[in-house]
């Protein structure tokens, strides 16, 4: 196999496929970068992106190219290592054949799948927070939930308070009967005295 010819032909094919996404860094050995983005609206900032750097070895494609992720955006912890492990696995499966297009396609598929999962996780988290907020508002509206136990405790306390009130009223009534006095208008006694006096005068006459 003429390794140099294979490598030159692949680079030319990649330039026609990826155009602005491919940047040549060197030719001895062949070295270049390709920008990769998950499937989404390219006018938006959302999505996963990375730049893959490829360096051909002397006996590529019978040897794996040197792979490196030189830049990435919106990756979470562990994404870079997981993606690299996946791409090395794909490269090994294609050993002996030009493989850069296959690796880039696999990377784009991985990024798209991972981005879909990230969006799903975000939606679930948003739903969870919404439910928590609604539940909190519902608890505020309903107040303390009444259980059998709490109702019985309230009923017992109410009856005790009611019984005490009745006892207080009863004691107050009984106290009035034992110690209470009838108020008498003293002027009545004065009138009676005058009445007795008048009767005496009449008898004297």
UniProtKB/TrEMBL annotation:
Q: Can you name this protein?
A: RWD domain-containing protein
Matching CDD domains, A to Z? Answer: RWD_RWDD1
**Record domain RWD: where:** 9-114
């Amino acid at each position: 196999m003429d390794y140099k010819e294979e490598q030159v032909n692949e680079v030319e094919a990649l330039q026609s496929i990826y155009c602005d996404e491919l940047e040549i860094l060197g030719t001895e050995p062949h070295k270049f970068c390709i920008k990769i983005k998950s499937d989404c609206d390219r006018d938006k900032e959302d999505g996963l992106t990375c730049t893959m750097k490829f360096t051909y070895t002397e006996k590529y494609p019978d040897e794996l190219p040197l792979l490196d992720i030189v830049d990435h955006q919106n990756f979470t912890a562990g994404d870079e290592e997981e993606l690299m492990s996946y791409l090395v696995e794909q490269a090994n499966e294609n050993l002996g054949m030009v493989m850069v297009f296959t690796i880039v396609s696999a990377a784009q598929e991985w990024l798209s799948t991972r981005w879909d999962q990230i969006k799903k996780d975000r939606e679930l988290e948003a739903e969870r927070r919404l439910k928590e907020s609604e539940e909190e508002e519902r608890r505020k509206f309903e107040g303390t939930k009444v259980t059998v136990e709490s109702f019985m405790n309230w009923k017992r306390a109410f009856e005790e308070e009611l019984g005490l009130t009745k006892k207080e009223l009863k004691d107050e009534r009984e106290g009035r009967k034992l110690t209470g006095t009838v108020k008498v208008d003293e002027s009545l006694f004065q009138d009676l005295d005058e009445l007795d006096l008048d009767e005496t005068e009449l008898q004297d006459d």
